Amino acid sequence: MKKSRFIGRRTAGLLLALAIIPAATGCGGDSSAGSSGGDSDKVRFGYIADYSGSAALAVAQKQGLWKKAGITPELKVFTNGPLQVQALGSGDLDFGYVGPGALWLPASGRASIVSVNMLGLADRVIARPGSGIDRPADLKGKKIAVAEGTSGDMILDLALREAGLEQSDVTKVAMDASTVVTAFSSGQVDAAATWYPLIDTMKKKVPDLKEISRTEDYYPELTFPNVFVTQPKLASGNPEFVKKVTGVLKAAGDWIAAHPQESETVAADFLELPAGQLEGSTKYVKILPSAELTKLSQDGTVDGWFDGLADVFVRMKKLPEAGRAKDYYLADLYATAGKADHS
């Protein structure tokens, strides 16, 4: 498989209409999950070519975790989560990676979550100096740039809700993520809802910008997880195979938690990028060891994250009603999946 040579933009939140999304190139439907290839099961697994979207698969490959589990992976690169969910639905993919902006898809029943990968810490609502914005309540009546349907849109929704404001209380200016950078930097808007490392670019022109709302302000009650998903019918029809694959993900996640900086290098090598190109990526994520994630899954905290985000998606009109996490997050399967590798 030819690996991607680029870092994908933060595309997980691109809420594409699934009815018009073409199937990803190279996803043939003639291979079945768990089919025996000698002593090895085969799995078709999607990923995105950035740090969060590839690190676990990179580590699993580098540390020999697939081989140890008796699994042969066929890894397929995608540009966003919705495309992977469509490939799951058509049977062309067995597992995939979905960012927080696309979690409305599992909540609508189109995929089952097998594991939380990492928690995003990069999203911010920021304001220009002199805008009169020092706290979320000051956003009222202001012009705010946002890439709609992304995690930036989600952090803006949370900030407005915290202040008791409605979407109609502000002027949202919808644009793509790169244009948000230009609009904010040039003073065309008062504020922006976006994320790092784009904010680092903005700081070069607006060094005294203000951070009004941050992802971690809402933790642990609410957070922005990126996750691994599978076909609902695969989870119900072949749970032992899904457990085996999830066990690999748990082992990879534990290795990353123990070696965060080294994981940046492993991911860069996997993506065929210069060694230092992903340096600092772990600054923008929270990596939970499997023991902690299991505890948070069993005490209902993780369900609360997904339920809270489903409510956000209802307010954003991405869902007609909020599905409950117990119906699409396979917490019990995660807890009983293979032993984590702490090597």
Concise structural overview:
This protein is an alpha/beta fold and 343 residues long.
What are the main properties of this structure?
D-Maltodextrin-Binding Protein, domain 2, disordered N terminus, 4-stranded antiparallel sheet, 5-stranded mixed sheet, 343 residues, 19% strand, alpha/beta
The DSSP helix count reads: 13
Distance between the termini: 27 Å
SSE pattern: EEHHEHEHEEEHEHEHEEHHHEHHH
- So what's the CATH class of the largest domain? Alpha Beta
User: What does the overall shape look like?
Assistant: globular
The proportion of residues in beta strands is 15-25%
**Main sheet attributes: strand count, strand direction, barrel closure:** 5 strands, mixed
Q: Helix fraction?
A: 25-40%
Number of domains: 2
